Amino acid sequence: xxxxxxxxxxxxxxxxxxxxxxxxxxxxxxxxxxxxxxxxxxxxxxxxxxxxxxxxxxxxxxxxxxxxxxxxxxxxxxxxxxxxxxxxxxxxxxxxxxxxxxxxxxxxxxxxxxxxxxxxxxxxxxxxxxxxxxxxxxxxxxxxxxxxxxxxxxxxxxxxxxxxxxxxxxxxxxxxxxx
Length: 179
Prior knowledge:
This protein is 69% helix and 0% strand. The chain is mainly alpha-helical. The chain has one domain (3-178): Orthogonal Bundle (Arp2/3 complex 21 kDa subunit ARPC3). Helix 1 (3-20) runs antiparallel to helix 2 (37-48) and helix 2 packs parallel to helix 4 (86-105). It is globular and about 45 Å long. The protein starts with a helix and ends in a 5-residue tail after the last helix. The relative contact order is 0.16.
């Protein structure tokens, strides 16, 4: 791996860490706060591509697993990867991978197609997987867990729009990372 590529991956890990210091908004009815870190996940996949985006997010989660307090509220450790938010967190690297893969394979300049790739593979994938694990962790019926996640859709859609704007601004300069 080239030094430049390693630097981009490290910068993306740093962005995920910085976004973790922004406090989450607790909802009260489910133990999952509204956070900004999934914007970093979207950006990792969009800007770094599938493999490198996956790697950046996986490194971030490894740091969290070994105790670095990089999640909102200073949460860290293996317990966070097995708690109510586990489904969301463990889906992060796969969301980055599929966003990158989608943008790599579907070579289009159509705004709505690029947005849909980011939205489906981040917003839907993370929220559905997170809902399933949340249901098991909290004994909440799956339908209620899925419906409770509707609260995330507007904010996550806004984050996907922000990601798309940043991606379109820098995509031409970072295409070498997709190889």
